[in-house]
Write a structure and sequence with these properties.
The structure holds three protein chains of three kinds.
Chain A (H helix, E strand, L loop, with lengths): L1 H32 L7 H19 L2 H25 L4 H24 L22 H4 L5 H9 L4 H19 L1 H11 L1 H6 L4 H27 L11 H11 L4 H20 L4 E2 L3 E2 L2 H16 L21
Chain B lengths: L8 H26 L4 H13 L2 H26 L7 H19 L4 H30 L3 H23 L36 H18 L1 H11 L1 H6 L4 H17 L1 H10 L10 H11 L4 H24 L7 H15 L5 H8 L12
Helix pairs in contact in B: 1-2, 1-14, 2-3, 2-13, 3-7, 3-10, 3-11, 3-12, 3-13, 4-5, 4-6, 4-10, 4-11, 4-12, 5-6, 5-10, 5-11, 7-8, 7-13, 8-10, 12-13, 12-14
Chain C lengths: L6 E12 L2 E12 L3 E6 L5 H8 L7 E6 L2 E3 L4 H6 L2 E4 L11 H6 L8 H19 L14 H14 L4 E5 L7 H16 L3 E6 L2 H7 L2 E6 L2 E7 L5 H9 L17 E11 L5 E11 L2 E6 L6 H8 L7 E6 L2 E2 L7 H7 L2 E4 L3 H5 L6 H4 L18 H14 L16 H13 L5 E5 L7 H16 L3 E5 L3 H7 L2 E6 L2 E6 L5 H8 L19 H5 L3
Parallel strand pairs in C: 3-8, 3-9, 6-7, 7-8, 13-18, 13-19, 16-17, 17-18
Antiparallel strand pairs in C: 1-2, 1-4, 4-5, 9-10, 11-12, 11-14, 14-15, 19-20
Helix pairs in contact in C: 14-15
The chains are: A mainly alpha, B mainly alpha, C alpha/beta.
Chain lengths: 323, 366, 530
């Protein structure tokens, strides 16, 4: 029994750790399916995390914080759009620039507003997204296994967690069952096919990047006003890149993105729990090895040692109407 | 349009980048104004902090030396059509080699430490960069993603090494300190104007590296092959140039250059290796390379500018408490954005300006 | 009232410039409803630009467009489609990993949810397939289809959108003769159902065979519009180029000597493992030009790549001057040059040049390792530039400036840069792919003369071209390729019929033998579109 609740606990923290990665990876999915490389997930998330915490701290409302997060993240997505769609610049460079922009600007602004060396003040409970008890969680908690899972694992997360998990089937539905999804998939493969069919490539890519901006906004708000209670310097700590790795790992497909993010969530949770634990035969596993595992797995996958991950064909290439 | 009169060479290589950089500073200035400080005074403080006195110069040149290395690393790879974002990790891992050799030789003479740690840093950096190079050349993995992943792997690997393997007992994840006998000479020992600045003998290695890259890219047959591959891989195949070999060689050179930063920073100044010693300088190299248009002269100027920003930025944060030194990171981001991703921003305007009287030029997209 | 007009399309004074280049100049072109109208002209005559304007892809600078007698401003492609104008591009605009059905509804889904649109499209597709003989499996992935089938998908796409006027840009360029015949049958069906067809081509035979009227374009202008029945191929050719074409490059008969290039049992597969060249053997002697004819995409490109050392063969051997060539990866192409082989590639900008390089840098491409450009690793700019200057003079490359960026030279001059580099040296074998593709008439003559001069100087020349006239004008012997095989050897004087048959895979020497492939497109032909 003890073992079972241990597992539940670990899965619970895995879910919490997976959420920001999941949202960011879905953001990347929209963007890259439309043919725009999105190295800037990290920066958008970071900018959003700051905006959410700062606005929530000032107004006391997590909702206004969320709105600010989405606004900042979408604004950054628009910079990316202008650089890579209108100016046909290098999408990777633009993404790299956005990451630094967020890294510098959050601390620069935070320092001047709050005088705490870049961090924001701690948020009160009301200024954060608080856990939501699902109906009958307490009553059902008594039922072994199913009830426990319901009460401890499924219930009791904040709103953004549920939004994130809901975003997976919604994305799958949009991508494969709607007109927008069809066009999105087409524009990442062969933008010219759309252009000659009279559909604006520019508009479609802008739409995809806006959706990505909103999702990164959610991810950032989750970090600073859901999971955490303030913003601190570089608080995304590479999650945007983990999300990118997850996206590649999942071959740009929504449901596999969910599984990959959960796997990476489990790895992060394990990394905390396995500190100092002796394993039979191999002894103590260095924390750093588990830390590096998602990255190593992605490298191995990209090298084609375990299957192949092929990006949308037109990804990274600016669309130029030829004569 | 192709048939349109092209821009004069000086506009293309000097004026446009200068305008882009200027724009980055204007936006930076607006940010300063937004937090209620006078941007012009901030500029003054910044310039004075960087160039106003000997020690400032020393710090500026010291930072610039590191940026020359990481900037050249990005530039060399860029000539082969590769975007090496892994300078950060390469410099980090190179620190391991550099410090190990330095600690091994530090009872002899600084000359041995300099030569030994330089070779070790280059080797370690080269190896760390060659793996992504190999994976791109042989297995088709995208070098951008792989080098990003390698930065994180390097970070985990190095914190393990520093915490568990070559750690100084009792310390929190850092190595032993290099003994007095093996420390690299500071330039202030010869030029007293530099007073307490960390500028050291590695500065000259930086100058050598600039010359080396110029000669390599433009005056050797290998450089010709590198540029051919970078500009048109299909033409390289036609010419019988082995892309696999070139990619691996170029990444090795790139990683070796990034690795040299370890000599300047870890061996030369900190005299030990600590967690996260690279401090994002590997990424500054990206800004430096783009601003410098991947040419050594441009890189030298860009590195100097960023050295001044880093040094002056600290001074600025001291004088104007509401302006944090992270302003430098913002400007760095804007420089990457404007000179890298939006480099042709001013082109339509300039084309119109220079083609006046020759009829209306074609707008950027037809 | 507009419907009363007899003209489906009427262009009145349409002009379009790209910068200083006048792509279309004051074009007048009336096209009668339910007619098949041809537009002929050389490469760069402005045919595609004009049709792109009609399809809303570009906007005319001036002039008027009337559709069914009503003046319209065509805003974009979707507007053109609304007006009933559909276009099948030379390079298909399909999403490879989509099904046929998905491709057909793309951009014309008719609702937010796909399920309904797909269902509606499926039954509409069945109807169209019945009416026009356009059978394609709606659930097949486009990447699995042959070129001919992909083209049918493109036509279906246009019809699904209600196109009454169908523009086809060089539709037979990538088709085998059998497939082209099938396409013409589809045209007849379309014609019978009242559609108007605009056919852009540079093949006069097609114009004569199928069109009712024809417009000839030259240098962005309409030279004339004629009834097809009132003209002849000779007449059209003359109008197209503006004077009688001397395709018979003045050439004496050759004097073949010893075998210099020998190809033995060569087979090549592409990166996907599809066979492209199948057991090909031939040889080229010193002092002769051997031409390889065939429809684009039948393995000629792959053959050139292997002989020049750019790719490795699956099977077979290549011998140069009696020595067998060992293949050793990417370096083989460089080694071939040491053995005395020079290669003018099919696509100069993609393969033969680096556009961003200065002219002199391209003048050493492939030869940079030679000691004359500097000892060891040193690259001597001086030596390379001096040589480049000499070549500029010898080959009359304009402007005569070796420091100019290669992208700033015209197509013909770029081709001369490549020719100069490959011809102006010690060599025994010259292999040339599509030497005059996209090159203006004046340069064509110059290039042909140079190739013949190489032969007369005793070099072995292998010429690959999809322009049959060029092959016949230059070659001493002609090998015809189809589906990766050499079907037969012909003399340049062989009849049209013999060339036609062999290019379709039938050896005219074997009387009435069965075709090598019927109907089904070769894997090679499919590659041509990519």
């Amino acid at each position: 029994m003890n073992f079972f609740s241990d597992i539940i606990l670990m899965l619970d923290s895995s879910v919490r750790l997976a959420v920001p990665i999941l949202l960011a990876a879905l953001a990347g999915l929209y963007s890259e399916r439309s043919g725009i490389v999105d190295i800037g997930l990290e920066g958008k998330m970071l900018g959003a995390a700051f905006a959410a915490a700062a606005v929530a701290a000032v107004t006391g409302s997590p909702w206004l914080g969320l709105l600010a997060a989405i606004a900042v993240s979408s604004f950054m997505a628009m910079i990316h759009a202008i650089a890579s769609i209108n100016m046909r610049g290098n999408q990777i460079i633009s993404g790299v620039a956005l990451n630094f922009l967020a890294l510098g600007a959050t601390v620069f602004v935070g320092h001047s507003w709050f005088k705490r060396g870049g961090s924001t003040p701690n948020l009160s409970t009301e200024a954060r997204f608080s856990p939501i008890e699902l109906p009958f969680a307490e009553q059902l908690g008594g039922i072994p296994i199913v009830g426990e899972i319901y009460e401890q694992l499924i219930s009791g997360h904040n709103l953004i967690v549920y939004v994130a998990f809901l975003a997976v089937p919604v994305t799958a539905w949009v991508l494969f069952r709607t007109r927008f999804g069809l066009r999105l998939r087409a524009v990442g493969e062969n933008p010219k096919a759309l252009d000659t069919a009279g559909i604006s490539v520019t508009r479609l890519r802008y739409q995809a990047l806006i959706i990505g901006g909103i999702l990164c906004g959610l991810a950032g708000a989750y970090l600073s006003t859901g999971q955490g209670a303030s913003f601190s310097d570089n608080m995304t700590a590479g999650r945007g890149f983990i999300a990118l790795a997850a996206l590649i790992f999942a071959k740009w497909k929504p449901v596999p993105v969910l599984w990959t993010c959960l796997l990476f969530g489990v790895l992060s949770a394990a990394q905390i729990r396995l500190q100092g634990v002796e394993f039979p035969l191999i002894g103590e596993v260095p924390v750093q090895a588990i830390q590096a595992l998602p990255y190593i797995l992605t490298v191995i996958l990209l090298a084609g040692f375990i299957g192949r991950s092929v990006a949308p064909k037109a990804v990274g290439q600016p669309y130029i109407k030829e004569r | 349009m192709r048939a349109q009169k092209p821009l004069p060479r000086w506009v293309d290589i000097a004026l446009m980048p200068a305008l882009n950089v200027a724009l980055a500073f204007v936006v930076g200035g607006l940010a300063v104004a937004a937090v209620g400080e006078d941007p012009f005074r901030a500029m003054q403080v910044l310039i004075f902090g960087a160039f106003g006195y000997g020690e400032g110069w020393g710090f500026t040149l010291h930072f610039a030396t590191s940026f020359v290395f990481t900037g050249l690393a990005v530039a060399v790879a860029y000539h082969a059509g590769l975007f090496n974002i892994g300078g950060e990790g390469q410099a980090y891992v190179a620190g391991l080699g550099a410090i190990m050799v330095a600690l091994w030789l530090d009872q002899t003479h600084w000359v041995f430490v300099l030569v030994g740690s330089t070779l070790a840093a280059m080797t370690f950096g080269a190896i760390w960069a060659m793996i992504p190079g190999y994976l791109q050349a042989k297995r088709g993995s995208h070098i951008v993603i792989t080098t990003i992943m390698f930065n994180f792997i390097a970070s985990a690997f190095m914190s393990y090494m520093l915490a568990q393997v070559i750690t100084r007992p009792g310390a929190n994840a850092e190595t032993e300190t290099i003994a007095e006998t093996g420390r690299l000479p500071l330039l202030s020992e010869y030029f007293s104007a530099f007073t307490y600045s960390p500028l050291n003998i590695t500065f000259f290695i930086g100058i050598l590296a600039l010359i080396f890259v110029y000669v390599l890219i433009w005056r050797t047959k290998l450089g010709y092959q590198i540029r051919t591959l970078g500009a048109n891989p299909e033409a390289a195949r036609y010419a019988g140039i082995s892309a696999v070999a070139i990619i691996i060689i170029v990444m090795a050179i790139s990683g070796a250059l990034a690795g040299l930063m370890a000599v300047n920073e870890a061996v030369g100044v900190q005299k030990r290796l600590g967690v996260g010693y690279v401090q994002g300088f590997g990424f500054v190299g990206i800004a430096v390379a783009f601003m410098g248009r991947a040419h050594p002269i441009g890189i030298a100027l860009a590195a100097l500018l960023f050295g001044a920003l880093y040094q002056g930025g600290q001074e600025l944060a001291f004088v104007m408490p509401s302006v944090s030194s992270d302003l430098v990171v913002v400007i760095q981001a804007l420089v990457i954005l404007f000179t890298g991703a939006m480099s042709e921003m001013f082109k339509p305007v300039l084309l119109r300006l220079f083609n006046r009287g020759n009829g209306e030029p074609e707008p950027a997209g037809d | 009232m507009g419907q009363d007009s007899e003209l489906a399309i009427d262009l009145r004074g349409v002009s379009k410039a790209f910068g200083p280049v006048q792509a279309n100049k004051n074009i007048f072109m009336p096209i009668r409803r339910n007619s098949i109208h041809g537009i002929v002209g050389e490469n760069g005559a402005g045919k595609s630009t004009l049709m792109s304007i009609l399809y809303g892809f570009y906007h005319a600078d001036s002039g008027e467009i009337f559709v069914n007698g009503t003046k319209v401003q065509i805003k974009d492609s979707s507007h053109a489609l609304e007006l009933g104008i559909g276009m099948v591009h030379q390079h298909f605009m399909l999403v490879d990993n989509f099904t046929v059905l998905e491709n057909i509804i793309l951009g014309a889904e008719g609702g937010f949810l796909l399920a309904k649109s797909l269902k509606a499209a499926r039954s509409e597709m069945e109807r169209l397939a019945r009416d026009y003989g356009l059978e394609v499996d709606p659930d097949a992935l486009v990447e699995d289809l042959s070129v001919g089938q992909q083209q049918r998908v493109e036509i279906l796409k246009a019809l699904y959108r209600g196109a009454e006027v169908l523009i086809l840009d060089e539709p037979t360029g990538v088709l085998t003769p059998t497939e082209a015949d099938h396409l013409f049958k589809i045209f007849e069906q379309l014609h019978a159902q009242g559609k108007t067809i605009i056919l852009i081509t540079h093949k006069l035979r097609e114009i004569m065979a199928i069109t009712d009227s024809v417009s000839v374009m030259r240098r962005g202008e309409i030279v004339t519009t004629l009834k097809t029945s009132e003209t002849s191929p000779d007449n059209l050719a003359e109008l197209m180029v503006g004077r009688r074409v001397e395709m018979d490059a003045q050439k004496t008969s050759g004097d073949p000597q010893k075998k210099v290039l020998e190809v033995k049992g060569l087979s090549v597969t592409d990166e996907l493992g599809v066979p492209r060249v199948k057991n090909v053997s031939f040889d080229v002697r010193a002092g002769e030009i051997v031409g390889i004819a065939g429809v684009a995409g039948n393995g000629q490109s792959q053959l050139l790549e292997v002989i020049s050392g750019m790719t490795e063969p699956l099977l077979g051997e290549i011998w140069i001057n009696g020595k067998r060539v060992e293949f050793e990866g990417a370096k083989t192409a460089a080694k071939m040059r040491h053995l005395g082989l020079a290669h003018v590639p099919e696509d100069r900008l993609k393969t033969g040049l680096v556009a961003q390089f200065e002219e002199w840098e391209n003048s050493i491409l492939g030869y940079s390792e030679e000691p004359k450009y500097g000892a060891g690793q040193i690259l001597s700019h001086k030596a390379a530039r001096e040589e480049a200057d000499q070549r500029i003079e010898k080959f009359d490359i304009r402007p005569p400036n070796c420091r100019l960026k290669t992208a700033n030279f015209s197509g013909g001059n770029q081709q001369k840069i490549v020719l100069a580099r490959e011809m102006d040296r010690e060599l025994d074998v010259l292999i040339v792919g599509q030497p005059t593709r996209g090159v203006d008439i004046g340069a064509i003559e110059f290039i042909h003369k140079q190739i013949i001069a190489m032969r007369d100087a005793g070099k072995a020349v292998l010429l690959v071209s999809v322009e049959l006239d060029e092959i016949r004008a230059l070659s001493d012997r002609v090998l015809v390729m189809f589906d990766g095989k050499i079907v037969t050897e012909l003399t340049p004087e062989a009849s049209e019929r013999e060339f036609g048959l062999s290019m379709a895979g039938v050896d005219p020497h074997e009387e009435e033998s069965t075709p090598v492939a019927t109907g089904k497109v070769s894997a090679g032909a499919k590659e041509g579109v990519r």
